[in-house]
Fold this sequence. Notes:
Layout: E1 2-7, H1 15-30, E2 35-40, H2 73-82, E3 85-91, H3 99-109, E4 113-119, E5 122-128, E6 134-141, H4 156-168, E7 170-178, H5 181-184, H6 190-202
Parallel strand pairs: 1-2, 1-3, 3-6, 6-7
Antiparallel strand pairs: 4-5
Amino acid sequence: MNLLAIVGSPRKGRATDSLIDKAVEGFISNDPKGIVNKIRLIDKDINFCKNCLLCRDSDTKGPVAKCSIRDDMDQISEDILASDALILGTPVHMGSVTALMMTFLERICWTFARPGRQILTMSGIPLPRSGKKRKAAIIVTSGIVPPIFKVFCNNATPLIRGTIMDSLNAKTVGTMYAGDIEHRGVEYYADKAFALGRKLARA
């Protein structure tokens, strides 16, 4: 199985990065022959969406529409196409994902989806361009807010879950909120991250 891990933290080697590594370990423990590709968005040249709508209005029959921007999303799109499973991680910034992760999510929305769904009176809702099914796990970290209060600050998980379902046809099989890390430490959540990775591989 091909696993793509995407780190949305601007800080390398810190909580989000480390817990994604633990989840990858858990995944590999259950799928030793799995292929892992880890991407730190901070290392990539990913420009903001220009809202030109070239991708949204594309009539391509392929799994991904052409974007007007030429940057590292070209290669990342290829990595996504090759993936069977995803792990996405981000710290909570302003109650949601980081600017890095938001830019990534905006760039995959209409390139990997087309306006093909209708709910009630609303039409043009994203529908994956590809029928390939993927599975995913989401890790969200917070330095201060403990899990008991995550309802007040964690808009990141539903945003990621909804976007990857609508665009990448990825069903989220497990999520993890690692809160109050400044006091509890990363190791407090290491076993849970490992178990999340195993769950993803078994799903």
